[in-house]
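Need a sequence for this fold. Nothing fancy.
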């Protein structure tokens, strides 16, 4: 399938900075911080939850959080500026994956935290193999399938954003007028700046909205700075601090989850590139998947959970029109700094959940929108494809909103099939293969599969030349 270069299509009008554009440093720093704010709690929450679930001490929990920040920053930098075949050369912000939470807690309680890191290390080649086998693997993930996955990512994250806006799950003041009012302030400031202003006010609207909310929360007594006073000034990474242990059942479980996060990464890459009215190249998808696997192995060595692309940052790219990979690189550097200086990380984490919730709801909704945009642009909305889309989303939301439907299954299967991404994603995958009239990766749902190497190289050259 022929794919036009940007020289032929022109730069889309809703993009302020394209992938290879370099905003001035004075803009790049707040835009990078905006990415950090969008993913910060999502990155540190998994190690907090796993540590609590397996009964680790507070000091150990803090160490895990700092390692999560450092690894996410390095992984983001690698995605932005690839090392050989490792990295997509796209504005992909990496972080600790929520998809592994349930299995990791079960593994930790059964075998200890060393088994979590051992399984993550041994199973990480799953994504590397998927990346290097992309020519065969990719045909099963046309825009119809990846669009469904992206839409489900957004739909299933929205309840999380609502919980943040209400003050956080389990908060004594959950859904209080103070929390909802603070979230509404961030929400309205962000929307007003994004829709009625131009320049830096529009493209940094999420960052400005969060800063306004944080500042307002301080005199209201909604910010607790005690953790900042107790935090140290510097932390040192210690490789293999908890050791590694290997258990076949743990490795098989984590390997299965890597397959799921591969689908999520393909969806995220597609969502990012769709913001610029392109389809992802083979090299971008392959590099992104390989980086997921390699950096998850790196994470296991440095006491962090598996890393993957963060969907909320895909929403940020679509919402702000800032697709510059250099901005994402600045975010990676900031994450590394936060990881080495616990006091800074403690200051950011002291931000009330309601402040982040006000911005998160917008970002999560925009993820859904990017999935819809991907399908609208590249899929023929005939009866077959509409049926696949509708059924896949319905099945995914079924297990997400009514998990009790799985209560008679063994707990392991409940964990597997309790994810909307697993059920909805695999439903779309299988239906696209089995339902007559479309085939695998053919017709309107095809991206750029089947390109010979010379053609693919030419497309990539056009991309580079017209993006600088």
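Here you go.
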């Amino acid at each position: 399938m022929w794919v036009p270069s940007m020289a032929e299509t022109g730069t889309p009008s809703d993009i302020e900075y394209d992938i290879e554009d370099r905003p001035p440093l004075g803009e790049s720093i707040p835009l990078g911080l905006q990415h950090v704010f969008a993913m910060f709690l999502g990155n540190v929450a998994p190690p907090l939850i796993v540590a609590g679930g397996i009964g680790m001490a507070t000091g150990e929990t803090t160490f895990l959080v700092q390692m999560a920040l450092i690894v996410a920053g390095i992984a983001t930098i690698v995605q932005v500026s690839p090392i050989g075949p490792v990295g997509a050369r796209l504005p992909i912000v990496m972080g600790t994956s929520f998809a592994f939470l349930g299995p990791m807690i079960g593994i930790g309680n059964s075998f200890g935290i060393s088994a979590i890191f051992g399984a993550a290390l041994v199973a990480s080649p799953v994504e590397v193999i998927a990346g290097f086998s992309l020519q065969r693997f990719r045909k099963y993930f046309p825009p119809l399938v990846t669009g469904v996955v992206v839409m489900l990512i957004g739909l299933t994250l929205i309840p999380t954003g609502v919980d943040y806006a209400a003050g956080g799950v389990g908060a004594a003041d959950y859904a209080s007028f103070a929390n909802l009012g603070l979230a509404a302030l961030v929400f309205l400031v962000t929307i007003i700046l994004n829709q009625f202003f131009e320049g830096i006010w529009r493209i940094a609207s999420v960052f400005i909205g969060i800063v306004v909310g944080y500042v307002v929360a301080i005199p209201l007594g909604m910010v607790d700075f005690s953790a900042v006073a107790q935090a140290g000034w510097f932390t040192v990474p210690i490789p293999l601090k908890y050791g590694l242990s290997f258990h076949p059942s743990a490795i098989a479980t984590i390997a299965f989850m890597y397959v799921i996060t591969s689908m999520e990464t393909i969806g995220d890459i597609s969502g990012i590139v769709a913001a610029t009215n392109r389809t992802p190249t083979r090299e971008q998808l392959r590099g992104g998947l390989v980086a997921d696997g390699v950096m998850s192995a790196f994470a296991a060595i440095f006491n962090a959970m598996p890393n993957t692309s963060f969907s909320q940052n895909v929403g940020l790219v679509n919402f702000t029109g800032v697709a510059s990979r250099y901005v994402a690189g600045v975010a990676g550097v900031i994450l590394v700094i936060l990881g080495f200086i616990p006091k800074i990380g403690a200051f950011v984490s002291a931000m009330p959940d309601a402040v982040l919730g006000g911005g998160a709801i917008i970002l999560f909704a925009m993820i859904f929108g990017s999935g819809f945009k991907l399908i609208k642009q590249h899929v023929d909305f005939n009866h077959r494809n509409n049926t696949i889309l509708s059924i896949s989303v319905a099945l995914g939301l079924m297990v997400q909103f009514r998990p009790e439907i799985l209560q008679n299954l063994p707990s392991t299967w409940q964990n597997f099939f309790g994810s909307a991404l697993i059920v909805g994603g695999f439903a779309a995958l299988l239906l696209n293969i089995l339902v007559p009239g479309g085939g695998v990766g053919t017709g309107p749902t095809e991206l750029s599969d089947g390109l010979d190497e010379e053609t693919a190289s030419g497309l990539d050259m056009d991309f580079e030349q017209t993006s600088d």
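For context: The radius of gyration is 21 Å.
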